[in-house]
Amino acid sequence: MKLPLKPRIPLKGNERVAIAPFLIVASADKPKDKADLANLDLQAEFHRYLIQRLQKKTKLQLIDLGTEVQLPSRELVALSRSTDFWRTIAQKNGADIVVSGSLEFKVEDSAGYKTEEYVSPVTGQTSFRQIYVERTGFLFDIVFLVFDGKTGDKILQDEFKDFRERNRRRADEMLGLFSNLFSLEDQVLNMFVPRERAVQRYLFTR
Amino acid sequence: MARGLTTWLRIAFVATLAATAACASRASEPSVSREMRFGARMGRLGYWREARFRFARVVARDPNNARAHNNLAVALEADGDFSGAFDEYKKAVTLDAADKSIHQNYTRFAEFYTAYTKKVGKVSPAR
Predict the structure, then answer these.
(1) What residues of chain B, 3 to 32, have a C-beta less than 8 Å from chain A?
(2) Minimal-distance CA residue of chain B relative to A157
């Protein structure tokens, strides 16, 4: 069955929403991945993607503030408290709400030993053993901050995380970024508009 | 003699009317199993409001029917009334803790509902 999910922000649906830049943090474990990441304009890619999705899937009136707006801080907490800045931005652009936040994209390629608890099936005794763990993939962590245009107050803060395993031979940062974004699309859109989620339930006929 | 016959005829007529009315009221109120079947069918077709109405009627007539409570919970969930659904799932599990399907529905919903309330709880009521 389809499960209705109400939007996280109670909107009428036709509000003017300004999309501001996000704080970007990109990192990689290996030097080669760092070099590849440097060629990727995360800010521009994410900005374009967010506006395009919201334009396509909602009736909100989007205001593209571009990626050149100077944010008042490089810290998320300080950014969320900059009420004057957000109120000014909203008034200047005639926006009802302003969206910003932070975006962390990490190319992980780490391996090492990890201590794990082990219960012997024969003796039932608990011991600790070392196991070799490999973790390679794209980690995506996005925090959305939504501000009220009239007051500049934060009305919603939400975090979405995703990890996608990657093929070591064909690791492309751009594909990794979009596989992360596609998997989170419904959750991101659900902040603004109602969404549906397919769930499985038993229904009795007698 | 004729008067006595008329009285008897009158009594017979009233009795027939009463019996007909009783039959009619029974016919307009479908059986519990029929309501359940119809509600489930409506749910499968996506008419969850109708399904909800049917299951609510079954629950009103048979309050100890765990399956009816479960179905009502599913209909409420599909209709977006999550707190109502949670109450009904709980009632269903309490009434029949051994039913695996009911239990599975309850745990699946509880998992969703916990995450949902945690997230929605963050929304500021200011707007």
Answers:
(1) none
(2) B122
Residues A6-51: tens digit of each pLDDT: 888 888 888 999 999 999 988 887 787 777 777 888 899 899 999 9
The domain containing residue B42 runs over which residues? Answer: 31-120
What type of residue is A136? T
The size of chain A, in residues, is 206
Total structural domains in chain A?
1
The reply to whether A205 falls in a domain is: no
Residue A85 sits in which domain range?
2-109+136-194
| Residue of chain B whose Cα is closest to the Cα of A5 | B80
Determine the Cα angle at B62 with ends B57 and B64, to 5°: 130
Report pTM.
Answer: 0.65
Residue at A123 is within a domain:
no
Q: First CA to last CA across chain B, in angstroms?
A: 84
Beta strands (DSSP E) in A83-179 are 97-119, 126-148, 154-165
Beta strands at A126-148 and A61-64: parallel, antiparallel or unpaired? unpaired
Which member of A3, A9, A205 has the closest CB to residue B78?
Answer: A3
> Domain holding B57: CATH number?
1.25.40.10
